Amino acid sequence: MAMYVVLSRFSPEAFRNPKDFKKLADEVALRIKTECPGVIWKDSFVTLGRFDVVDIVEANDPKQVEKAAMIIRGYGHSTTETLLATPWKEFLGML
Fold first, then answer.
1. What is the CATH number of the domain that holds 27?
2. Integer Cα distance of 1 and 3 in angstroms
C-alpha cells in the first residue's frame, strides 16, 4: 500500500467559531470514509506552520486519495497539497 501526506490549509470561510471546526472535521471524515473506502487514515496532526493540518493516509489506488483531497477542498473549504511518501528505511533499502 502506498503512503501519502495530505497537507491542508483552511480558508477564512471554513468556519466562524473555532468550536464549529470539530463538527466540520467530523462531517469531512465521515464523507471520506463513505466515499473513499480504499483510503486508510493513519494519523492527523495540527501544525503551526504553513499548513494547518497534516494527514497521513495509505491507499492502493491514488484516485481514492485524489477524491479524498477533493472532499477536503470542497467540503472543508480548504486548499490541499498531496505528496507520495516512501518510508525512510524502504528508501534506503532501494539505494
1. 3.30.70.1060
2. 7
Q: Residue 27 sits in which domain range?
A: 2-94
Nearest of 70, 65, 71, 61 to residue 83 by alpha carbon:
65
* Cα 14 from Cα 9, distance rounded (Å): 10
Global confidence as pTM: 0.89
> Any idea how long the chain is?
95
User: Domain tally for the chain?
Assistant: 1
- What b/e readout covers 53-68, taking b as 16+ CB neighbours within 10 angstroms? bbbebebeeeebbbbb
Question: What is the tens place of the pLDDT at every residue in 24-66?
Answer: 889 999 999 999 999 999 999 999 999 999 999 999 999 999 9
